[in-house]
Amino acid sequence: MPIKPPYVMRTILLIFSWLVPALALGQTAPFKPVFTNMTEIGALFGQVKFGTQGMETVSKRVNLTAQTFNGVLLNPRLAVGATVGVDWYNAALLTPICAGARYDLARPNDKNLRIFASLDTGWGFSWLNEDAAGYKTSGGWVISPGIGFRIGNVSNSNFVMALSYKRQEAEADKPLFSNELAKHETRVYNRIAIRLGVSF
Amino acid sequence: MKANRLLFLLLAPLFWQTGCTDRCEETRTFRRYTPVTLTLTQVREGVRVEEPRELKQPGKIYTKSGYLFINELKEGIHLIDNRDPSAPKQIAFLRIPGNGDMAVRDNILYADSYMDLVAFDITNPAQPREVNRVQSVFTNGQFDGGWWNVNAQTLTLSDQRVDYVTETRKTDCDAAGSSNWASCPTCMVDIGFASAAFDSKTAPSSNGTAGSMARFALYNNFLYTVSQSDMQLFNIQNAANPKQSSRVNLGSGIETIFPYKDKLFIGSQTGMHIYDNSNPANPTRLATFQHARVCDPVAVNGDIAYVTLRNGTQCGGYTNQLDVVDISSLTAPRLIKSYPMANPHGLGVDFPTLFICEGKHGLKTFDATSAIDIKQMEHLAGQDAYDVIPLNKTLLMIGKDGLYQFDYTNPARLRQLSKIMVSRPYAY
């Protein structure tokens, strides 16, 4: 099957959005608004309980997640910008595009460790998702608050480790059996994300 | 300050306890079938004329001499005075238990009532009168997916009542792939819509015009009725006194029948059969144009047959297209070109204008002057479109939310004349 052009374009755009920050390296100036980036990869941990009442089953879920935050450091503690990512859920490949903020909560003992809080919210798109015949998946609202720490000198690249909560909504139309008129699924993914990455 | 931060760190894992469970809910609306038993006497005594009522589940549409007949699935026929298409008037409801199809010749309306064929005198359309009945001529059939059959020994009829049920269940959020289409057990049944409109100009003037998936057709001195697998002929030389005639086996999955010149085109779920009807008492098969197993209403004009293939609940398959078929050689129909469509249902042709109902995607009109280059002229979105009858520059279109009438003097710009509301028993 030939690859659809929009698919290729979106993939290129996505890769670009990850590469561009590299060009901006070294533009640090303490009291002027400067560009900042935080790129992470990690896993989304969760579980799901399903079935009819009295016959419920639980199964655990782990899915891959990657994201990059690109923003402007407004003051030494607060950065605002956009977060673009990809989340590989079992039944949907979603591309969240969010407005994001990073705020430094503390720098214990003025060492090379900073604790920060993060908040991203926006819309998860299903652009990259391929649907099986009869299915139609669409994305939805996403919000992700979290905390993390970065290790490294303020003026250099830092190593990042973060823990966050992620709520992602999605919807799907499903194929119908002969006696069915409509079948629709609303999904809410509630996950804990653990991510590792770099920032500068 | 420091303590606050510590608290924050401690609180974070709480999400783990409370918030890390995916919640997925599937809401589905489906037909639930409940068995019911009726006596044949009950069925036969159930015919009567009632006050006009709301359209709920319209089935086939039929028009004759300014009157419009709309089947209410399994219930009867809405009689509508449509001499002024911009102000149609409901004049009566003819209750016929187990009715799904109809045809009109002169002043006689033929309608099925489960196992019987009933003839009504409609000289006064507001007061139809039962004049004759061919008893126990059909043995089984289905409405909305629910089957009925006659038990000749006990003189009873087993039917299935259909209820529309919506239920919600928790899912594992994982169903994105393996679809179970292949195991769909009742995919051979079809819905009351899906359709074919034949060219009105070729029908003798005393007959009406069928729209939807006509299973009744009039030609010469015969009424042709198709079931899932058979074609039953009735001799109607004396229109008020139909006589049971021969029966022809057609194969399975039969959906529609329409006469064109001296041919019968029979739409089935696997192809289009062409029957030679030069001897109207004994149609013989000429050829079959095969295609994927989907629903396939057909319209014919001259040497060209327009076949729409669609997928959907009752139809199986994943094809949505318009096939233009050369039938100049009736024994060897040949595909000219396929055009991609969204979800085509009924269609109608008033050459060179072709009307295609795209289900929830609305109605499209095409310029079909050249079979290899059919051009879209207009797309009316915003209403559901199942089936059409183009007749004398007035287009009758039925959809889930109503019966619309359009003036198509300018086919590139349809003008709505009127709408009769439909109130469905379910929301989809």
Automatic annotation (TrEMBL), chain B:
It comes from the Bacteria. InterPro entries: LVIVD. This is LVIVD repeat-containing protein. It holds the Pfam family LVIVD.
